[in-house]
Specification:
Elements lengths: L6 H16 L10 E6 L2 E5 L3 E2 L2 E2 L3 E8 L3 H9 L4 H4 L3 E11 L2 E8 L8 E12 L10 E8 L13 E2 L1 E12 L13 E12 L6 H27 L7
Parallel strand pairs: 8-10
Antiparallel strand pairs: 1-2, 2-5, 3-4, 5-12, 6-7, 7-8, 8-9, 9-11, 11-12
Helix pairs in contact: 2-4
Bound molecules: the ligand CCCCCc1ccc(-c2ccc(S(=O)(=O)CCO)cc2)cc1/C=C\c1ccccn1.
The site of ligand A59 has 23 residues, from strand 7, strand 8, strand 11, strand 12 and helix 4.
């Protein structure tokens, strides 16, 4: 069977993004500044501009009790849940199904005054990796979203501004088996989440507006999304 033209790119970008996500905020050299904290959630950004546009890389780390990395990635990747947790979404559709673990999405985000409305086309890939620290521990799960071109969605509709992004959600399940050998319950598991994103907002938007949007929206997004996964998973069997 002939490989899809994106398969090689998906493999390369996933490997590169997982390696970056695994670097702690200390190891990535200086420059990461903590800008939001809420319980276990820590959000860092680096102030970076490309051609005068703010493209601040963002790295968030969070530990959530009672869910697994597979569950977090499942609800992040699967299109049928997206309107439930992505509040800034005005429209979303699956443009192409490359395989069961690789989809191409079009998303139109709500306009955020005073900037013009943004849209994005990206491939999204879900994958699990052996846990190299603990061979027989639960696998690491990841979803990588990477902007891509698609003939049906040329980036020059005029009305909206096309943005470019690379996002990596990396999840590690932690199991603390009960002492008495009882079956593992949701009280015995937690998930260490790393969320990395670099968004190029496309057309010009005031740096102050972009930084304010990110400062407000990202903490809200991660809190809302993780709460959604907890709520969806709590009465269902654990997905390891
Ligand atoms: C002036 C406003 C410019 C920014 C607009 C914008 C750009 C990108 C994105 C965005 C953020 C996360 C993803 S994802 O992680 O792949 C999940 C799938 O949706 C994809 C897109 C959103 C938003 C608009 C608001 C905003 C900004 C952060 C966080 C949340 N919302």
């Amino acid at each position: 069977m002939v490989q899809h033209h994106l398969t090689a790119e998906v493999d390369a970008v996933v490997k590169q993004q997982v390696a970056m996500a695994r670097l702690g905020v200390g190891e990535c050299g200086t420059g990461w500044q903590l800008f939001a904290e809420d319980g276990e959630m820590r959000m860092y950004r680096r102030e970076q501009e490309v051609d005068g546009m703010v493209v601040d890389p963002l790295k968030a780390v969070h530990t959530v009790k009672g869910i697994t990395g597979h569950e977090v990635c499942h609800y992040f990747f699967s299109p049928q849940y997206r309107y439930d947790w992505e509040t800034t979404l005005e429209h979303m559709n699956v443009v192409e199904t490359i395989s069961e673990d690789t989809l191409v999405f079009y998303q139109l985000h709500k306009r955020i005054w005073p900037a013009s409305q943004r849209d994005v086309v990206f491939w999204s890939h879900i994958r699990h990796l052996p846990n190299d620290q603990d061979r027989d521990g639960p696998h690491i799960w990841t979803v990588v979203n990477q902007s891509t071109e698609h003939p049906e969605y040329p980036g020059c509709s005029g009305k909206t501004v096309r943005i470019y992004l690379t996002v990596c959600l990396l999840c590690q399940t932690i199991v603390n088996p009960p002492k008495d050998g009882a079956p593992i319950s949701r009280n015995d598991i937690s998930c260490k989440i790393t969320y990395c994103s670099v968004v190029n907002p496309g057309g010009w938007a005031p740096a102050s507006v972009l930084r304010a949007v990110y400062k407000r929206e990202y903490p809200k997004f991660l809190k809302r999304f993780t709460a959604y996964v907890i709520n969806q998973s709590k009465n269902k069997p654990i997905m390891f």
